[in-house]
Here is the input.
Amino acid sequence: MTSERPAEPVLRVLVADDQDLFRAAFAMILDAQPDMAVVGEAADGAEAVARAAESRPDVVLMDVRMPVLDGVAATRRIRAELPGVRVLVLTMFDLDEHVYDALRAGAGGFLLKDIRRDELADAVRVVARGDALLAPAVTRRLVEDLVRRPGHGVAPLLAARLDGLTEREAETLRLVARGLSNAEIAAALVVSEYTVKTHVSRVLAKLGLRDRVQAVVFAYESGLVAPGDP
Here is the structure.
């Protein structure tokens, strides 16, 4: 008698978009993945919050611009009330100002709606793992554009918090902010990926950050990394 292999865990996804065609297309693409199941859809931010509370998805695919409650406010509420639920933000515009607020609210990544279907599925997997979507150049451009704005400078209180990091932890944060993956950071520091994950976890804990996206924003706002740094 042969024993069956245990089934792979299925990622539960909620799709929130006020445009029916986009919502249906994203749901169809994700539901067709062998490791995913779409557990609900929402046409506005308020419905997204309610559906997330009911279905407890692993990831919410969240449009930024929606009626009743926009995607930023919905992201903030979901991350505050359901910290185990991760949010992947979608928008039509790569420099949509609302995206800055969404990242601050705890979104785990940012995508344009013209993304390819394989990239969409991979992005959901990345955010579900808690790694956050940092590699795409558009995400770095968003953060760098934010810190270039008039009136934006290094926040002294944030910079002071860097003193609690070890030299290796600060270097890890600097590389995370440049968009490097754990494997790339491991190669740069000549350590194992496990060691990198340990450093990242300690950085997040010491700085009181939710995830790597917030770590990137912190690195720029504290002055640890400046736009244009190699």
